[in-house]
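haha ok so turns out i had the wrong file open the whole time. this is the CORRECT one, sorry everyone. sequence first:
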Amino acid sequence: MTDDDDTIPLPERQRPVTPCVADRVMGHERCEQFLHTLREHVALMMPSTTGREESPSRTQHRVGYVMPPGWMAELPDGWLDEFKAHVLERVPVALRMLGMEAFTLGGWEFQTALYHHRGFYKPHTDNSLSQYARRRLAFSWYCYDLPRLFSGGALTFTRGAVSVMPEWDRLVLFHPKDKHEVEPVECWSADPMSGRIALGGWIHADS
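then structure:
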């Protein structure tokens, strides 16, 4: 992910919409640690916002919940560092698959999101606003209570009609400019931990 990488960027219209997908990323023990810590703090979840607060239709653009960023400090020692390492391990492959130029790491941004019964997120991009311009690569990792008690919730990309199902312990990396959506979720339990839970975020470039 440095300037020495020989990745050659493609023009935006030619760049493929080919998300990088990896399964069995964190392993059972780390997944259980994540879920246990999240359950202890799940009462902190709040309705999600989209940066479209001025729009009367905002509530119809996204129906879901997010955790305040500070909750991740409660994860076991080393958990987040290990997660970052797994993401970075897959970045070179993701850049090649997406036809993206290499970049120098500038930081991380995280968001833990829950989509429960009838939750969804309509088509959008992740860096259309100026304050998000440094977002260079997006990721989403799925982890929720088992057995799975929801259906739907696919991550679908508008261009190319590519869909990725939110399988347990699955990591997806994609371009923030690629328009995508979270398909509607149907959940058969009132427990929020039974919904579609994802630890997502963005890798920032240093400039």
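The longest strand covers residues 105-115.
again sry for the mixup
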